[in-house]
Automatic annotation (TrEMBL):
Phylogenetic classification of the source organism: Bacteria, Pseudomonadati, Pseudomonadota, Alphaproteobacteria, Rhodobacterales
Top-level taxon of origin: Bacteria
Name of this protein: HIG1 domain-containing protein
InterPro entries associated with the record: Hypoxia_induced_domain (IPR007667)
Alphabetical keyword list: Membrane, Transmembrane, Transmembrane helix
Protein source organism: Palleronia marisminoris
Domain (HIG1): residue spans on this chain: 1-68
Keyword Transmembrane helix: yes
């Protein structure tokens, strides 16, 4: 199953989203103005990474004909 490079890339993108989310949330917990700005930047990066992950998953499903 993980021999498919597109599936592996989608999995890596999902892991990256989780890591960025954890980093962003940990920054919110520390408090302070600088940490808040940095956390907001991480959350923007998370949105971009999440959009990429969803696009890769949809591309995988479409190309492999998994649905139906």
């Amino acid at each position: 199953m993980f021999s498919d490079p597109l599936l592996l890339l989608a999995f890596v993108a999902c892991v990256a989203v989780a890591i960025i989310l954890i980093i962003g949330i940990s920054g919110f917990g520390k408090g302070g103005v600088d940490n808040a700005k940095r956390s907001n930047k991480y959350m923007r990066w998370r949105i971009y990474a999440q959009a990429l992950a969803v696009a890769l998953i949809l591309l995988f499903v479409w190309l492999r004909g998994v649905v139906g």
